[in-house]
Amino acid sequence: AEPASPAPMASVPASPRLPTPSRGPGPAAHRRGRPAARPRVEVDQAFLRSPRGFLKIARTLVALAAFLCFMASGAREAYAALAGMEVVTNALFLLLYLVKLDARIRFLYWPLADVLNSVLAALLLLVVSLCAIIIKTNKGTLAGGVLGLTLLALYLVDVILLWKKISLDKARGGSAPAK
Questions:
Q1: Which of the residues 2, 15, 21, 143 has an alpha carbon 20 to 30 A from that of 52?
Q2: What is the pLDDT tens value at each position of the chain, 179 positions in all?
Q3: What's the angle, vertex CA 150, arms to CA 144 and CA 154, rounded to 5?
């Protein structure tokens, strides 16, 4: 004799106030001790593969290399401070675009803020890198100056790419106020 199968859950009348019962253990049963509903951060994989994403990563790595050169060489504090500031700024902009915070924080037009950051950083890097190359107290300072000029070139390429994006957004009506 076979045991009787339990009645299906569909035969239970649904209440408008109560949620319908689930059909088995959910993902929370596999993660004991953790809350069931946890918001996840969505990473923009397409941004990492785009030219702008590659450029942001390259900017961050070159700024980090320049910072390490200036720190290892015992260069003036201004050189290391500017390179360190660029590492942090580049990492924050990379993170902003990577987790799509620019789409969530709408009160600021992020491409324009990124352009302004890149132009100001390029001007500062021009002065600091040229001073580091001209003075060249040691090879670490010289290497940091050369990496600073490389970073300057990356900033200029980024400004061009961002300016094209801003121009395309205006042509599509992306910056026009909704009526």
A1: 143
A2: 555 555 555 555 555 555 555 555 555 555 566 555 666 778 888 998 999 999 999 999 999 999 999 999 887 788 899 999 999 999 999 999 999 888 888 888 888 999 999 999 999 999 999 998 998 788 989 999 999 999 999 999 999 999 988 888 776 665 544 44
A3: 135
Q: Quick one: three-class SS letters along 35-48?
A: CCCCCCCCCCHHHH
Tokens of 139: 């090879």
pTM: 0.71
Cα 8 to Cα 11: distance, rounded to the nearest angstrom: 6
> 142 and 133 in contact (C-beta within 8 Å)?
yes
H helices of 50-138, in order, are: 51-73, 77-98, 101-104, 110-135
Distance CA 29, CA 35 (A): 10
> Which tokens sit at 173?
């009506």
Q: Residue 126: how many CB atoms within 10 A of its CB? A: 14
In the three-class reduction of DSSP (H, G, I as helix; E, B as strand; rest coil), residue 136 is classed as coil
How distant, in Å, are the alpha carbons of 89, 93, 129, 154 from that of 135? 26, 32, 10, 23
Enumerate the domain spans of the chain: 45-168
